[in-house]
Every structure is written in structure tokens, then in C-alpha cells.
Write a structure and sequence with these properties.
By secondary structure, the protein is an alpha/beta fold. It contains eight helices and eight strands, in the order βαββααααβαββαββα.
Length: 283
């Protein structure tokens, strides 16, 4: 497949003025992340011979207010945020994550902007607009909303970067563990790499002290576990758990049964082994 030419975000941008929506706010936040030097103006008419990027106005590449607006294969129409992500998203995420972000995050916002359908995040952004009797300007409120949206996007992209950094740690831990109980030296995001493998439990140091033992879900879409902790543990008092299990350091089991906590690594592994053995006995 021929490599696409890398696109550069210019130092100037223009979008519409007045009342704003999640579409133009998140589009602006995305551009500011891609090019922190960009200066964006708002107005009701694109200046003649403007030499920057124009979006959500002007009926150009990154507008969606014309009859021949573009649609995704699934029928969801693009708005400016989605059009910009399609053009520049590869700068911030690999192909798989870029598509996932479009599907799960951008498409609901694009749909809300195009159809007016309810969306909680779109409503939150809309409420940054000044009230009917407010003396605060739309531009002042817009930049407050943009700062909020930029924080959301930066958090997401930082999480993706963290997942990439943790990938090598996870792969090494999977190689060194026994194929059933995954023991990680530190917590790293693990589900995408572990779900669907032979591993049934993940063990890692807890940020609350001690160790966490977590059951592996059946799939990324199905949160039920490949192997569960015994139901009598679920939500039991801390002093009862060692008596039930014979594991001195077992001090917590979540009421929904997907997570347990122990004082030591040894007891964390014992907790996972106990669950596996008793699950096999029930079969």
C-alpha cells in the first residue's frame, strides 16, 4: 500500500464565531494539540485569501454543512471533528486505535452535531456557552470549553502512549509467567494483550499497597470472566476471607467478584491458584 503523504497542520486556523458546539470545540482542541503554535480566529466569514486551515465553516475540506457532506461506511455523517481526525489522527494514534477512537468517541459527537441527537458530552460543551443574559463573550466562553476539551484529548493520547510503553513490560511478563497466572512486576495496561490468551488471572502490585489479583475477561466486549473467584468470597468481610480460603494475606474480594487483594505476592498467586483449583473441581 502506497504511503500517504504526511500532512502538516499550519500555524493559522479559522472557524465560525458565535454559539459553539462540541464539534468545533474538539476540532480546535485537536488542532492545538497537533500544532501548539497555531493561532485560531473565530468569525462569521472566512477572510479573503486566508492561508491557514479552515474548518466548520467555508464549505471546504473540513466543513460539513453542504448537501454533499461526507458519510462513513456505516452511514454516520462526518462533522468537522471527524474530518480533521481522518486527515490528522495518524499523527496521534496507530491505525487500530485511530479507528477505535473515531468509532467510540468522535462518531457520537459528529452525529450529535449533524442531527441534534442527545449526547452527554456534547451537552456539557454546549453549556459552556454564555447564558441569554450573560455579559461574557462567546469567544471567552469558547476558549474555556476548548481548554476542557483539550484536557480530555490529552489524557486519552497520554493513555495510548502509556499503553505503548507498557507493551514491552507486558510481553516480557507473559513470557516469564506460567501461561495461566500472569505476574507483572508493575501495573501496566494489560487487557488488550492478555484477553484471548491462555491467561486466566493477572497479578500486579496495587497502588494502595499489597497486590491485586484480577480475573481475565472472556473478551473485550464481554466482561464475564474466564475464571471467577468463589462466590462466597464476593464482598465478604476482610477478617472472614482468610478463614474461608486458608490464605492469611487475602483481605478483599470485590462484591462483583472480578478483583481480589492480598498483602503479599505469594498470597496473590495462591489466591489465583485457589480460584483455578476450585473452578476445576466444580466442572
Amino acid at each position: 500500500m502506497e504511503e500517504l503523504e504526511k500532512r502538516i497542520v499550519p500555524d493559522k486556523g479559522f472557524t465560525h464565531g458565535g454559539k459553539f458546539h462540541s464539534d468545533d470545540v474538539f476540532a480546535t482542541a485537536l488542532l492545538r494539540i497537533l500544532n501548539p503554535k497555531i493561532q485560531i480566529d473565530r468569525g462569521f466569514e472566512v477572510p479573503e485569501e486566508f492561508d491557514g486551515i479552515v474548518y466548520d465553516i467555508g464549505r471546504g475540506e473540513f466543513d460539513h454543512h453542504q448537501r454533499d457532506k461526507e458519510y462513513r461506511d456505516n452511514g454516520c455523517a462526518y462533522a468537522a471533528f471527524g474530518l480533521l481526525w481522518r486527515a490528522f489522527g495518524s499523527e496521534l494514534a496507530d491505525e487500530k486505535e485511530a479507528q477505535k477512537f473515531d468509532t467510540e468517541f468522535i462518531q457520537p459527537l459528529d452525529e450529535s452535531d449533524n442531527t441534534g441527537c442527545d449526547n452527554v458530552l456534547a451537552k456539557i460543551i454546549s453549556e459552556f456557552n454564555p447564558g441569554w443574559d450573560s455579559e461574557v463573550s462567546y469567544d471567552e466562553c469558547f476558549w474555556k470549553a476548548e481548554e476542557f476539551a483539550e484536557t480530555i484529548l490529552r489524557n486519552h493520547f497520554q493513555m495510548l502512549e502509556g499503553m505503548q510503553r507498557g507493551k514491552a513490560v507486558l510481553e516480557k511478563a507473559m513470557e516469564e509467567s506460567n501461561g495461566t497466572i500472569l505476574v507483572m512486576p508493575v501495573y501496566v495496561p494489560w487487557k488488550q494483550g492478555v484477553v484471548g490468551s491462555s491467561y486466566q488471572f493477572a497479578v500486579y502490585p496495587s497502588n494502595r499497597g499489597g497486590y491485586s489479583v484480577q480475573g481475565v475477561p472472556v473478551s473485550m466486549e464481554d466482561s464475564s470472566l474466564v475464571c471467577s473467584f468463589p462466590k462466597e468470597w464476593w464482598g465478604a468481610e476482610a477478617e472472614q476471607l482468610p478463614l474461608m480460603s486458608g490464605i492469611a494475606g487475602l483481605r478483599f474480594c470485590h462484591p462483583n467478584g472480578f478483583l481480589a487483594a492480598t498483602d503479599t505476592l505469594e498470597d496473590a498467586v495462591k489466591t489465583a491458584q485457589y480460584a483455578l483449583e476450585h473452578a476445576n473441581q466444580e466442572l
